[in-house]
Write a structure and sequence with these properties.
The chain is α/β, with parallel strands linked by helices. It folds into 3 domains: 82-242, Substrate Binding Domain Of Dnak, Chain:A, Domain 2, CATH 1.20.1270.30; 248-397, 3-Layer(aba) Sandwich (Rossmann fold); 420-636, Rossmann fold (3-Layer(aba) Sandwich), CATH 3.40.50.2030. Helices cover 48% and strands 10% of the residues. A hairpin with a 7-residue loop joins β1 and β2. α9 (193-203) runs antiparallel to α10 (212-242), α10 (212-242) crosses α21 and α11 (271-281) crosses α15 (382-397). The longest helix is centred in the N-terminal third of the chain and has 36 residues, at 82-117. It is globular, with a radius of gyration of 24 Å. The termini are far apart.
């Protein structure tokens, strides 16, 4: 990088991020002449036609570019209208995003099969209670059966999530009956993920489906095969194999790195690599080798979603979210970076080389030119993770560059699984979501919001996440979090019980009574399925309507950036949730397709999309929607506010 050009043309760092540690590393990167993702975002202007999804490159007669300012002024060479083109592009984003999470889920199911067959011995079933509950939720009888018998039946049943060509996916049994009735009426109940993704790609091929409403039907069915299929399988199997999360206190941000220790970061999405890495860094032989190299020990740190998997299960410290993955290498303290799949920026290779950091790809799905590849195999995982530790130790011994670690780390609590929330609200013997519903009905809690998703270097890092959530909790909205958004809020100190002082009077009282934060961290982006299960339980408990679409809830991805996010948004919308996105939205406003997504789907009994760039506007939209649902339920009037006492808990059915 040309340092003078950098100084003259790049934006002020204070406009790029609210994260103090990331800002410090951006300053250092400029001094060192190292280009990172924020710089590329500033110099690479987004294509305005592509941003509006007003172009089509699905055949060799194009690419065809329509004018988003006059969307109906012309059509593509084949005659495709702006609505057809946008719906096709939207569908393909959903197919790609759904394939990512669904493939992740299938890998976890493959590991599960090999564990119960005895072919993989390094992992085991750690949570038999979760095994029983998941099996029963899909209709498997568990009485009198061994753990092995139940596990084999569960595998066979969940395999249908992917391979089934007719019928309904297994976890459709978890969907509230009224919601499922709507899906059946609209023809959007998923069959099998492979079939839905294949059909989505076929329909969006040139000359096939050319009715934006019909394409949207398949968008919903494909997305639901992820949310209630692939992603849900990934979460549930991960819990069974590695343990269901319970709240754990830990620290986030770059200050978790240690100058006098060998620092290893694992970044990606699959927990199996990280679980093996935990074993490797705790090997007495490797610890002794690190000390022989002059280190005080080995420091294992997470980033992005694989980091969120282990922060929830083990309290492993977390260095930062997606936008900070390159800046953290600028510390010079990272001795090895191991990655598997998803959200791995190719620019990491170049930054890693600038500081002699070893970067290893480990998954055959994700090789990167210039990175070393050490393929990870679940039947002999330590072969890979031990080698990564050995390489990291050698880099520590031969460090050439000054180390600068921001002295910023933030305490936070993570691991609020559906099961723990159930226990937290009702106790060991009468775990229930009834206290949550009761306090929504009496107005102490206004509603529930899921704030999830990525960070995007095209906007000020973390700003929208933090401002949005502060506004929501101030207005008594309980917030559930997954993905990189969770890290943004943890850095802002909002994932601790003490943050309840920022909440409205009603939510604050609930938090203080239960001893919980006003923002609950549920896990990685694939763990959005936990939010779906929680919403279903709220319907089941009663008092808040008969379907998910009746609930006073809303969702938001303030800084989304990936196709996975579009798929996640669509499966929440199809489940009945008003879902707001920030940054940009890939549709021309005021077109028929835009109106269908933002208004028409709700009229069919589903949720709807929303879009805003300002976080305070996002909050207003979400709160207005929650209030609309409260009014429809007849719970908008002031009523006695009262927490459920122990005697009343004992009376709960």
């Amino acid at each position: 990088m040309d340092k003078k050009k950098d100084k003259d043309t790049l934006p002020d760092i204070k406009d790029m991020t609210t994260c103090e540690a990331t800002a410090q590393m951006l300053e250092k990167a400029r001094r060192d002449g190292v280009e990172v993702n924020f710089d590329r975002a500033a110099t690479m202007k987004a294509c305005p036609i592509g941003a509006d999804s007003a172009c089509c490159k699905h055949c060799a007669m194009g690419p065809c570019r329509l004018n988003s300012k006059d969307p109906y002024g012309k059509v593509g060479v084949c005659g495709a209208t702006i609505d057809t083109i946008m719906a096709r592009n939207f569908g393909r984003m959903i197919a790609a995003g759904g394939a990512a999470h669904t493939d992740h889920g299938m890998v976890m199911l493959d590991i599960f099969r090999e564990v119960i067959s005895g072919k993989i011995t390094e992992y085991e079933i750690k949570d038999t209670d979760k095994l029983y509950s998941v099996a029963e939720s899909v209709g498997i009888e568990t009485d009198g059966k061994t753990v092995e018998e139940i596990a084999k039946e569960l595998y066979a049943e969940l395999e249908r999530t992917y391979t089934q060509v007719e019928g309904e996916i297994p976890f459709a049994k978890r969907v509230p009956p009224k919601t499922l009735e709507t899906w059946r009426k609209l023809g959007i109940v998923p069959r099998g993920a492979m079939r839905e993704i294949m059909e989505m790609m076929h329909r969006t091929h040139m000359g096939v489906d050319q009715d934006y409403k019909n394409i949207t039907t398949q968008c919903s069915r494909t997305a639901l095969s992820d949310g209630w299929g692939g992603s849900m399988v990934a979460t549930e199997i991960s819990d069974i194999l590695f343990g269901t999360p319970v709240p754990v206190a830990t620290e986030v941000n770059m200050g978790v790195l240690k100058e006098n220790e060998v620092n290893i970061i694992v970044h990606g999405h699959e927990p199996n690599l990280f679980e093996s890495m935990i074993a490797s860094v705790n090997s007495p032989t490797l610890i002794e080798a690190a000390k022989a190299a002059g280190a005080a020990g080995i420091n294992l740190v997470g980033m992005c979603c694989s980091g969120l998997e282990v922060i929830s299960r083990h309290g492993i410290p977390h260095a930062g979210n997606f936008s900070s993955t390159e800046p953290v290498l600028v510390t010079g303290a990272v001795d090895a970076l191991a990655v598997d799949i998803q959200c791995i920026q190719q620019g990491l290779v170049k930054v890693a080389k600038c500081y002699d950091t070893y970067m290893f790809t480990t998954n055959p799905r994700c090789k990167i030119e210039g990175a070393d590849h050490l393929e990870f195999h679940e039947d002999k995982p330590l072969d890979t993770t031990d080698e990564i530790v050995i390489k990291a130790i050698s880099r520590f011994k031969n460090r050439r560059y000054p180390v600068e670690i921001p002295k910023v780390k933030n305490p936070s609590i993570h691991g609020f699984s559906y099961e723990y929330i159930n226990y937290m609200l009702g106790g060991s013997f009468r775990g229930s979501y009834a206290p949550l519903n009761d306090n929504i009905i009496n107005g102490r809690i206004r509603g529930v919001a899921g704030v999830v998703g990525c960070t995007n270097p095209r906007v000020k890092q973390d700003y929208s996440h933090v401002e949005l959530v502060k506004e929501l909790i101030k207005n008594d909205v309980l917030v559930l979090q997954t993905g990189c958004s969770q890290v943004a809020l943890a850095k802002a100190g909002l994932l601790t019980p003490e943050a309840a002082y920022l909440a409205g009077d009603g939510l604050r009282e609930v938090c203080e009574t239960v001893g919980m934060p006003p923002v609950l961290g549920l896990g990685a982006c694939v763990d959005n399925s936990r939010i779906l299960i929680a919403a279903s339980e709220m319907v089941k408990v009663g008092g808040l309507g008969e379907s998910i679409a009746d609930l006073p809830v809303a969702g938001c991805a303030p800084e989304y950036m990936s196709e996975k996010a579009i798929c996640i948004g669509q499966y929440f919308v199809a489940s009945g949730v008003f879902t707001v996105f920030g940054v940009t939205f890939p549709i021309v406003e005021d077109t028929a397709f835009h109106k269908y997504l933002f208004e028409g789907l709700e009229k069919e009994g589903l949720g709807k999309w929303g879009f805003a760039k300002d976080p305070h506007e996002m909050a207003r939209m979400m709160i207005d929607h929650i209030d609309k649902k409260r009014k429809a339920l007849g719970i908008d009037k002031a009523r006695e506010r009262k927490l459920v006492d122990m005697a009343e808990r004992r009376e709960l059915a």
